[in-house]
Design goal:
By secondary structure, this protein is of the alpha/beta class. The chain contains 14 helices and eight strands.
Length: 311
């Protein structure tokens, strides 16, 4: 990956810099464009506004690579309160394994994730009510897949994020598809990896489409598989739409997902064309690591951040 991206990840994980930024009033305005609210009440309000625009929400409590057990408990409890406070919109929550205990112990993390999934199961109203497990760097990929499999085996409502830039993803998606019913969010991947990863953008894009073809198979869709395509790439979106049309997959059988605050006009275009759109919408106060990683994924996102500062 590029030096720019590595540098942004370094900034995201710097505890000293994070503490300084979070305590600075000027920089607190930095996050407005990407964050849906600083509290549970605010994020529910944001979700209702998005719902009025026919846009769905995936709730994410800010915090990555958390080692403090007290903070882990805060994260789990906040997500559970959100799950139990959501009104008529989908109960769709995203969680990073490293923010709920994986930095300490696998079983501790799994139990925390199960707690959230149990609450979603109790409130569940439809197929779009489930816990989406985020994918982080390759050091935790195997554990993340293992967590997902454990939830599915236990009959809990869960989906998993897979990264097109990892070579192992082709095998991971095959195993999920062979099992039948499943939910997968496909992303390109945002971490600086070399081993076991495609590093050329064209190769990553090619693999993304190859996996998308599998996810939009008529056979798998009829078996109950639900694909989620997370991308802001206009060309990628159009290719996916063409695949769906060719395979005669109706618009309600898959969805696109984007980041809150990124490419708003493009988001509106997708909704106008009657495609399902969900926004990954973070909330909370630990906004710096999340925001700077978004800039690392794509330098163009810095424009959105700067606009939030002056707008």
């Amino acid at each position: 990956m590029k030096i720019w991206q590595k540098f942004m990840i370094f900034l995201a994980r710097s505890k000293r810099l994070t503490n300084f930024i979070h305590n600075n009033r000027f920089f607190s305005m930095f996050a407005r464009g990407f964050i849906g609210g600083d509290s549970e009440e605010k994020i529910i309000e944001t979700s209702n506004i998005l719902s009025g625009r026919k846009i769905k929400t995936s709730f994410f409590y800010l915090g990555e690579y958390v080692e403090d057990k007290e903070m882990i408990e805060v994260t789990v409890n906040s997500l559970k309160r959100v799950v139990n406070s959501i009104g008529k919109t989908d109960i769709h929550v995203s969680v990073d394994p490293t923010q709920v205990g994986l930095m300490h112990d696998y079983d501790y993390c799994l139990n925390n994730i199960k707690e959230i999934a149990f609450d979603i199961e109790k409130q569940k109203r439809g197929i779009n009510d489930y816990l989406m497990i985020d994918m982080e760097d390759s050091s935790v990929t195997s554990d993340t897949v293992k967590i997902y499999n454990s939830l599915i085996k236990g009959g809990l409502p869960a989906g998993i994020t897979l990264q097109a830039y990892l070579r192992r993803t082709s095998n991971d998606i095959e195993q999920i598809l062979q099992r039948g019913d499943g939910k997968v969010r496909l992303v390109k991947g945002a971490f600086a990896e070399k081993k076991g990863a495609y590093t050329n953008r064209k190769d990553i894009d090619k693999n993304y489409i190859t996996i998308s073809e599998k996810m939009l198979s008529k056979k798998h869709i009829e078996n109950g598989f639900y694909p989620v395509f997370a991308t802001h790439d206009h060309n990628m979106v159009e290719k996916i739409i063409r695949i769906a049309k060719r395979n005669r997959i109706s618009k309600d059988k898959f969805e696109f997902e984007m980041l809150y605050g990124v490419r708003k006009k493009f988001q509106e275009e997708i909704v106008k064309r009657d495609f399902n759109l969900r926004l990954y919408t973070p909330y909370g106060k630990e906004w710096w690591p999340y925001t700077i990683r978004r800039v690392g994924e794509n330098p163009k996102n810095l424009t959105f951040v700067l606009r939030s500062l002056v707008g």
